[in-house]
Amino acid sequence: MPITTEDTLQWLQQLAQVLQENREYLTQLDSAIGDADHGINMDRGFKAVMEKLPASEETDIGSLLKLVGTTLVSTVGGASGPLYGTAFLRASIALAGKREMYESDYILLLETAVEGIKARGKAQPGEKTMLDALVPALAAAKEAEAAHLNLAQIARRASEAAEEGMKATIPLVATKGRASYLGERSVGHQDPGATSSWLILKSLAEICARSSKT
Question: What domain range is 53 assigned to?
Fold first, then answer.
């Protein structure tokens, strides 16, 4: 069962709420190894997205993702704005014109988002970044698709892998971004970008699950 443009809209609305609820938590994580603004920035960015969505006449999934990407780039400071903005923009190109997202489209969304973040951030897994959640999520999604699981199951597997990847950032030494300045002192802290990546995929998985039951 695919998810529709309307489902995608619900995902973005739910995500904005989740990021608002986790604003202090993300900022607390970032205060240990960053600028203490990740939760503030993500909340601000998705509030701006919500302000644009009701007035938007965009009717396909790609257009909605493009709106998110351009809004995040223009409103979110630090590294997260350009990185997430690029991720959503790359995904918007891959899903351009689509009004339904199937299993292969979900893989494409994740794949292009990961490629965009790698290119923009010049990072790889293991460097204590959002990729440590997203790359395992993509691998799990591909594995689930190969096993012929449905979209809701694929999204759930990806979300679970992202959560594991997020937790696995705790013992890592940061080698990218502001956290890299801390060196060994970054060990023992969960990466805020990996955490927000998990929240994004968890919200999408919940929408896919809800859609599969209707």
Answer: 3-212
